[in-house]
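Weekly modeling sync, notes
Attendees: S.R. (lead), two postdocs, one rotation student

Agenda item 3: backlog of single-chain predictions. S.R. asked that every request posted to the team notebook include the full sequence so nobody has to chase files. The rotation student volunteered to paste the first one in as an example of the format we agreed on. Action items at the bottom.

Example entry:
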Amino acid sequence: MNLRLSILDQSPIISGYTPARAVEETLKLAQAAEALGYHRYWLAEHHAVAALADPCPEILLTRVASATTRIRVGTGGVLLPYYSALKVAEVFRMLEALFPGRIDLGLGRAPGGDMLTAQALSNGSYSAADHFPQQVQDLVAFLDHRLPADHAYASVTAMPAGSTAPPVWLLGSSDYSGALAAALGLRFAFAHFISAQGGDAVMRAYKQRFVAAERDRAPHAILCAFVICAETAAQAQKLAACVDLRRLRMAQGLDLPIPTVEEAQAQTYSARELAYVQSQRARLVIGTAREVRERLLQLRVQFDADEVMVLTVIGDYAKRLRSYELLAREFELQ
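Predicted structure, as returned to the notebook:
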């Protein structure tokens, strides 16, 4: 079974390295992804997180697109509640003018950090994305120059004007974004790496309830999975220890960089901590390239996904790149 594969990059900061190095590794990985045959390269937005370097994917996207020539580049995603719909539309109309036919606009409503940071970003007025549905509708209308005549800003044009606009994706790990994407006739990406349970029902409901719109006449869904590939299953499990420790630290409220493989291997766990770590493994796809390929194909069928996007965050930049290389070779992407 052929499968279109893409990459989500969170620009991870590994212990002992600088945020600047994390950004440098993002550029290197994006160029490799294009050469390997991946279809899209999306950048995530996070704020004041010691392990993740990118708070402004729309800026880094510009650099990534400039460093590549063919691969689609996008956001996974812009956290819309922090911004005005018009400003986001202007940014992505400019990106479309700079890189026509290569830009994707993925939108999220999560805070992307702790609530104190969310309040700081919104001048103390963060309201848990109360107005997200209207923001999405306004943003799409600004992008397409289709604001209703009775809209308060109907006479406002998002510049630079043009005949094309980026596809819009709603991102989510629950039924909320899937239902909204279906109602508005937009594309949908489900984060299996955040929520491993129930996502197949969410994605199928999205497709069943999809209302055809001017932008998209049919639904289109991406499944995003956390993947670790290595030459052997034992090596993959060793790399996965970085993820285990990272997720335990997050649960404990510890804001630290991604642990190195050595740090993760040296960690000891209490019985309670070990139980937590094991409970999170359902959100991972780990193994040799052949094992990972078979699991991704199973998930593709289970979720009725049109594409699969993979995310790899481990405590070694070279081994992260190798994981993507092994997967591309197994799927014969080139």
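Discussion: group reviewed the output briefly. The mean pLDDT is 96.
Action items: rotation student to repeat for the remaining queue; S.R. to check formatting next week.
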